[in-house]
Amino acid sequence: MRILSGIQPSGTLHLGNYFGMMQPAVELQRQGECYYFIADYHALTTSSESALLRERVRGVALDFLACGLDPARTVFFRQSAVPEVHELAWYLSIVTPVGLLERCHSYKDKLAKGFSPNNGLFAYPVLMAADILLYDADRVPVGKDQKQHLEVTRDIAAKFNETFGETFRIPEAAIREETAVLPGLDGQKMSKSYHNTIEIFAPEKEFRKKVMSIKTDSTPVAEPKPIADSAILALARCVAGAAEVDAMMASMRQGGRGYGDYKQQLFEWLWHYFAPMRARRAELAAQPRLVDEILAAGEAAARRYALTVVARARKAVGIRG
Ligand code: ADP
Ligand code: TRP
To answer: pLDDT tens for residues 258-273?
Structure first.
C-alpha cells in the first residue's frame, strides 16, 4: 500500500494539525510505503514573503521529523523538488470542470473572508490532485477539512482514466474519526485562520497561558459542569488515558471544582505528552545539515518515482511517448 500526505508550511504546528494529520501519518508508516511532503507550492497561494517561506519549510521539516517521521521508512521531500507536478496538474486541469472547483469549501471560505481569488487559489485542488496521483497513492491521511479535496482528486482521476484510458490509481482519504475536528480555544475548529490554536512546540509559559485561556462558561465552582462539547475534555482525550479522562468527567459532573483546575491538569498532560518530541526537535535543530541531507535523499527518491508516472500521463494524452 502507498500512503501519501502533505502539509503546508504556512504557520506553526498546532494540536489540530498534529492529531488530525501528523500523528495518523506517522502511525501509518508501519503499514505501507510512505511519501510525505512539504507543500511549499501550495503555501504560495497565501504567502508572498520569500524569507518567511524558507524559514517555515525548515520549521515544518523539523516538526515532522520530531513527531516521528522516520526517513528510513518514508520518502520525505519538498513538493517543489519535483516541478513535474505542474505538468501533471496541467493534464488534469483539462478534465476538471470549473464548477467542481467553484464548489470547494476552502475556496469559498477564502472568498467569504475577502481574499481576492487568484487562479492559484482556485486551481489549488488540481495541484493537490497532481500531488497525490503523481505517486500512485492508495491512502491519504488528512484532517476532515481536506475530505472534499480528496473527493475532487478521485473525480479528476476517474475522469482522466475515462477520457485517456486507465492511467491513475484512485486514492482514498484516511480520516481518523476521533480527532477529525479538534476544537480550538474558542470551541470552534482549531485553525490558524481563527487564531484559536495551541502550538505544540510553544515555550512553557505561552503553552500554559493558551491552555488556561480555553473558553468556558460561567458555571459557579460548586455546580456541576456541562460535559457535552467540552473543549477541555476533547483535548484531554487525545493525550490522557481513558481512566484519567473518565475521572475528570466524573468530577465535572459532580461539581465542586473550577474550570481552572481542569485546565491546569490538561496543561500538565499536554506538556508531558509532547516532552519527547520537544527534546527531539531541539536535537534536530542543532544539526541543520542532517535535515538537508534527509530532504535531499527524499527528493531524489520522490523524483525518480514521479518521472515514471509523468511519462505514463504524457503517453496517455499524446504528448511524447
Ligand atoms: P489550519 O486550519 O490551521 O490552516 P491546515 O489547513 O494547514 O491547518 O491543515 C493541515 C493539516 O491539519 C490538514 O490535514 C488538516 O486537515 C489538519 N487539521 C487542521 N486543523 C485541524 C483540526 N482542528 N482538527 C483536525 N485536523 C486538523
Ligand atoms: N491541502 C493540504 C492542507 O492544506 C496540503 C496538501 C497539499 C496535501 N497537497 C496534498 C495533503 C496532498 C494531502 C495530499 O492541509
So the answer is: 999 999 999 999 999 9
pLDDT tens readout for residues 282-310: 999 999 999 999 999 999 999 999 999 99
Please enumerate, as own/partner, the contacts of 94-102 that have beta carbons within 8 Å and a separation of 24 or more. 94/317, 95/156, 95/159, 95/160, 95/163, 96/126, 96/129, 96/156, 96/159, 100/125, 100/152, 100/155, 100/156, 101/125, 101/126, 101/152
- Spacing, Cα 10 to ligand 2 middle (Å): 12
Catalytic residues: 110, 189, 192
Asked whether the whole model's pTM tops 0.90, one would answer: yes
Residue nearest to atom 3 of ligand 1 (CA): 191
Query: Out of 1.10.240.10, 3.40.50.720, 3.40.50.2000, 1.10.10.10, which CATH number does the structure's domain 202-273 have?
Result: 1.10.240.10
Right CATH number for 2-181+287-317 from 3.60.150.10, 3.30.390.50, 3.40.630.10, 3.40.50.620? 3.40.50.620
Higher pLDDT residue, 133 or 228? 133
d(CA 38, CA 5): 9
Ligand 2 geometric centre to CA of 281 (Å):
23
